[in-house]
Amino acid sequence: MNLYENYPVARVPSKQRMPFFGVALVHMGMLTALDQFMLGAVLGHSMTYIHAFIAITGGSIIFFIATVGLGYAGMKEGMSGSLLARWCGFGRIGSVLVGLLIAISLLGWFGVQNSVFANSLDYALGHRLGFHLAATLSGLTLTFIVAFGFTALKFAARIAVPAFIVSVVYISTVILSGHSISELSILSMHQNAITISDAITMVVGGSIVASLITPDLTRYYSSGRQVFWMTTLTIIAGEYIINGLAIVASVMLKTSDVVTIMSEVTGGIGLLVVVFSTMRINDINLYSSSLGVANTIEALTKRKVSYILVTILIGVAGTILSVIGILDRFVDFLNLLGVLFPPVIGVMLVDYFILRSDREVLDASRRNGTLPDEIKTKKIGWLAIAASLLGGVSGYCITIGVPAVNSILVACIFYWLSEKTWLRIQSRRFSNA
Q1: How far is it, in rounded angstroms, from Cα 53 to Cα 39?
Q2: pLDDT (tens digit, 9 = 90+) per residue, 134-187?
Q3: Which DSSP string do the residues of 189-224 spell out, in sequence order?
Q4: Better pLDDT: 189 or 24
Q5: Contact status, residue 188 vs residue 279, Cβ threshold 8 Å
Q6: Binning pLDDT at 50, 70 and 90, where does residue 407 land?
Q7: Are the CB atoms for 48 and 190 separated by under 8 Å?
Q8: For the stretch 149-174, what's the b/e string if a residue is b when 16 or more beta carbons lie within 10 angstroms of its beta carbon?
């Protein structure tokens, strides 16, 4: 069963709920991937061990709260994240904007991952192509593979994740053999190029998109306990094991470049693993981004657009991002995600668990296994959108504290106060009438 494509605009029936491990493994795959290894390598190359792991822990706490909260709501309602947003403050059109935000972020990830692919390809060919030509070839090739559904990606998907995990374990074993903990500690004693607060935001940025789409998976669960343990295992595997090993590898090899790390220890096999991993990740990035944009256009204009055309256009845009150097702005990209997405999640959590503004219509329709009636669904949640924008700007502009925390707190407080104030105004108007 395809967990993402089934029931895109409907509740998952109770009889379609699935066992724990099948869903958990898919969720763990989001964070046991190349992008998390890249993040760990950047942290290890820029911070001491203790500061890097403080950042990982701080980011993981934010990720845990956001993921368990949204995951539980998705499990209870049987809805995907973008669909759930309709009744978590954003309304029908507002939820489309949430989906578009996810699509745009995945476009950015496509550019980042394609850059890694291009670096690997150029390295393997002895730098005869050059990065720009390699990025153009790799980006356009993958775009046409995804657009026209070639079966090569299915082969890549079967081997990419296990091969990557095996490679990470092998690299770590080779690097750590013969070194004591004290030696590793001495190697890590260098000045911090990244502050702990910024590093926490980077950790959040590297995983927060997974939080927002967690309901896409947990809608197949039947209890909150499953959501809790799924999130816990994902954090252990992705944040502490993959990130942790990347931190140590980057310190030992004195580089944050994953292509260098892979090639120096495993040679050509490591480069092949990087290529397959980026193919697998960018398959999902490009596919999901294309669907999100196509659905947004249809919802706003009532016109259906060609999936192949949208895929090609987005693939070209992602390839251009690679060529102009988005990988050089990887840290800035993570920081941007780390302040844009937490406010959206915060607004949804406040609306669903505290304000409960649409809880009655959700409860009534859930008993029938249907979605709430269109006439009972808010068209657009202006306050939710305003709170998300204000939170994002605050996280970007306020220099005191942790940007990711600042963004989510400002959004949550503003949304709660503004909604309560609006309800009081509406109540007075109704009583005076």
Answers
A1: 12
A2: 999 988 888 887 777 655 555 665 666 677 777 777 777 777 776 655 655 555
A3: ----SS-HHHHHHHHHHHHHHHHHTTHHHHTT---H
A4: 24
A5: no
A6: very high
A7: yes
A8: eeeebeebeeebbebbbebbeebbee
Long-range (24+ apart) CB contacts under 8 A made by 148-157 are 148/308, 153/279, 153/280, 153/283, 156/276, 156/279, 156/280, 156/283, 157/280, 157/283
Check if the beta carbon of residue 22 is closer than 8 Å to that of residue 377. Answer: no
Distance CA 360, CA 124 (A): 59
Tell me the two tokens of residue 387: 């709170």
Q: Which two tokens stand for residue 155?
A: 């082969």
- Among 295, 309, 272, 34, CA closest to 144: 309
Phi then psi for 99, rounded to 5 degrees? -60, -35
Residues 329, 397: Cα–Cα separation, whole Å: 18
With cut-offs at 50, 70 and 90, classify the pLDDT of residue 27: confident
pTM as predicted: 0.86
CA 302/CA 75 separation, integer angstroms: 30
CA pair distance 274, 264, nearest whole angstrom: 13
For the cut 80, the answer to whether the pLDDT of residue 81 exceeds it is yes
Residue 354's identity, in one-letter code, is I
Tell me which amino acid residue 1 is. M
